[in-house]
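The following block was generated as part of the benchmark described in Methods. Ligand: uridine-diphosphate-N-acetylglucosamine.
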Amino acid sequence: MDKFIINGKQKLSGKITVSGAKNSALKIIAATILLKEPVTISNVPDLMDVRTMQKVLEKLGATVEYCKDSSTMKIDPSTINSYRAPYELVKTMRASFQVMGPLLARFGNAEISLPGGCNFGPRPVDFHLKAFEQMGATITTEHGYICAKAEKLIGNHIYFDFPSVGATENVIMAASLTEGVTIIENAAKEPEVVDLVNFLKLCGAKIQGEGTGRVRIEGVKELQARDFTVLSDRIEAGTFVLASLVTNSPLEIVGAPISALEVFLEKLRLCGHEFEVHQHSLVVKPSPNPKAIKFTALPHPGFPTDLQAPMTAYLSTVEGTSLATEGVYENRFVYISELNRMGASIELDGNKAYISGQEQLSGAQVMASDLRAGAALVIAALGAEGTTEINRVYHIDRGYDDLVGKLSDVGANIQRVKR
Ligand code: UD1
């Protein structure tokens, strides 16, 4: 297992470029199952999760070519001849479950290994399944696989108890090729959901209300393959903002999707930091005397839960007591014990973390427990005195495209040690 070695307290400077959004690219790749002709997707980040989704499509029979240099993925879905997403792939990435909607809509058949929990608690798929049943599918569980079958899906009125990103996307994809009208109430509003809808609309889908809590999809008989460029990754951009702040170094973040980062930037303005918004970039101007703040991770347009851990890591270096509340997941604070090993002082009370800012974190041997927990440790390590060794960086590789290369280019002292 590879690890990162980071010598903290190095000043950063210059420009750092944001890659395509993982959470958008994965769903757009899944959505190509709805097409019958080859298609090219651009700005696809080079990530483990993207490679896993590529393998899922290849298992289904599609031909997929990824070009790292141009960040493009060519997908020919016309050769799909299997409807089964196997355990070996789904267990490594929950988002593999997103092929269920497109498979059901196009072939009336999908067998997907049941995704397990993840390191930060249970993550069920009951909303997805209930919605597909409401659309006429029969769902059974056999030998660890969820088998969904439908001679014909029919549009329906779907209500989610919580605005689940994955369930909203899965239903939108299925409903695009389903007879009748599907209405999703309490739909997720995340920018990546909107990006997926933009792709589907370009291919001829009839969808209204994306980015609001009520999405209306009128099924069409066929979609046409259209090339598409994935939006940039707001979570990666936010991580770079925090890298700039924790090292008290101005950085220019090229390709940062500003409107998708509004609430996050607003919270950081309350800390005292300033941002210059340019047409294609965001310039971070750290305040030398930041203030402690409170924030709550919520579904979009709230503070993104995927930046909760990196933000908490940053706030552990800000004088005063900050408060982080997690409103999306039951238990997304697993990483806190690792931060405390680096000298942070964070106390947990249910879904709240009370963060007493420390003048100095100190480098230590730590372990990433999941993707964003890993990003939090990188932020802490960049600001800490001494050397930090982050183990289990395969979690970070799932969602950050060349993090070591990008941070080194702006002056961080970070290395990857291969095992
Ligand atoms: C997506 C993102 C993930 C992000 C999350 C919330 C991808 C690949 N991943 O995950 O990075 O943290 O959105 O913004 O896009 N839930 C249920 N039943 C369900 C579905 C969800 O109870 O059937 C619950 C989950 O346990 C969780 C909450 O709803 O507590 C939100 O989950 P959801 O929005 O579905 O997250 P994902 O789509 O899995």
